[in-house]
Amino acid sequence: MFNQLVKWTIIVGMWRKYKRHLVATCVLLLSLLLINYIHLDYLEFAVATGSTNLGFSYLIKWSGFILAIVIYILYLKRVNTSSKYDSRLHKMMKARSVVTKKEDKKANSISDEVGNRDPFANIRAKKKLRSEADFLIDKDD
Amino acid sequence: MLDVKDKLQQKIREKAISRAKTRIVLAGKTPEDFNEEQLEIIVKEEEDKIKGSAKEKGLLVLLSLLGLSLWT
Questions:
Q1: What residues of chain B, 29 to 68, have a C-beta less than 8 Å from chain A?
Q2: In contact, B18 and A107? CB cutoff 8 Å
Q3: What is the 3-state secondary structure (H, E, C) of B41-70?
Q4: What separation in angstroms does the CA of A106 have from each of A99, A101, A109, A113, B33?
Q5: Mean of all residue pLDDT scores within chain B
Q6: Is the predicted pLDDT of residue A71 greater than 60, yes or no?
Q7: Distances (CA, A) of B15 to A69, A99, B19, B50
Q8: pLDDT at B71 > cutoff 80
Q9: Tell me, what's the pLDDT at A84?
Q10: Is A45 exposed, middle or buried (0-12, 13-18, 19+ CB in 10 A)?
Q11: Could you read off the pLDDT of A90-136 as tens digits, one per residue?
Q12: ipTM
């Protein structure tokens, strides 16, 4: 029973996250198969009619394959880029950006007086950061 | 090998700082409202979250690999 639960959790989780990727991959495989079968049919037809000029058909077949793969790659790149900024957090950030722009102008005039200091500069350089518990323990010592 | 580890650590740190800034902005404050200790705590929390989610994703991959045998 637990195995079933784990199985379906994984399936549902992967479907939700990678639906577009999976569908695009299926479409790519189907289109490659279709191009292949069309080419095989054409070869049979060509052999039946006694045609000897088959080189061009191979060129078209492979161009079709390459085109399908390129479209697939470009589509996935677009999906990955758009999903990067798709989260609820980013939508909230976008909504806030209009409000914070006015606050930024005010903050900038103040920071110009203080000097443009990055508050995270020292934190970037530290090897290991301390947690709240570490600070409390150090304080008691 | 150490370079790779350092670079990875650096990337995680930058990501954590970026998320910390976002979190602060969403709370309606600025990083200047906090002292260095408080900022360090916030960034540490975000770092731990990033490392935790990386472990979870690794576990999911492992489970899905194991899951192949669950079907048989």
A1: 30-32, 34, 36-37, 39-41, 43-45, 47-48, 60, 63-64, 67
A2: no
A3: HHHHHHHHHHHHHHHHHHHHHHHHHHHHHH
A4: 12, 9, 5, 12, 14
A5: 82
A6: yes
A7: 33, 24, 6, 8
A8: no
A9: 62
A10: exposed
A11: 666 666 666 656 656 655 555 555 456 788 888 888 888 888 888 88
A12: 0.70
Cβ-proximal residues to A14 (8 Å cutoff; 6+ apart), any chain: B64
Contacting residues of B for A122, CB less than 8 Å apart: 36
Residues with Cβ within 8 Å of A25's Cβ and at least 6 positions away in sequence, in order, are A72
A83's enclosing H/E stretch is helix A55-84
**Confidence at residue B72, expressed as pLDDT on a 0 to 100 scale:** 46
Helix or strand or coil: residue A115?
coil
Give the pLDDT score at A61: 94
Provide the 8-state DSSP code for A94: H
In angstroms, what CA-CA distances link B72 with A3, A6, B68?
11, 14, 8
Structural contact between residues B9 and A100, judged by C-beta atoms closer than 8 angstroms? no
Sign, CA dihedral B51-A139-B24-A116, equals negative
| Burial readout A64-94 (b: 16 or more C-beta within 10 A, e: otherwise) | bbeebeeebeebeeebeeeeeeeeeeeeeee
If you count them, how many residues does chain B have? 72
Q: How many helices (H) and strands (E) does chain A have?
A: 5, 0
Q: Look at A119 and B43 and tell me if their CB atoms are within 8 Å.
A: no
| Structure tokens that stand for B62 in this block | 């492992």
CA distance B48 to B41: 11
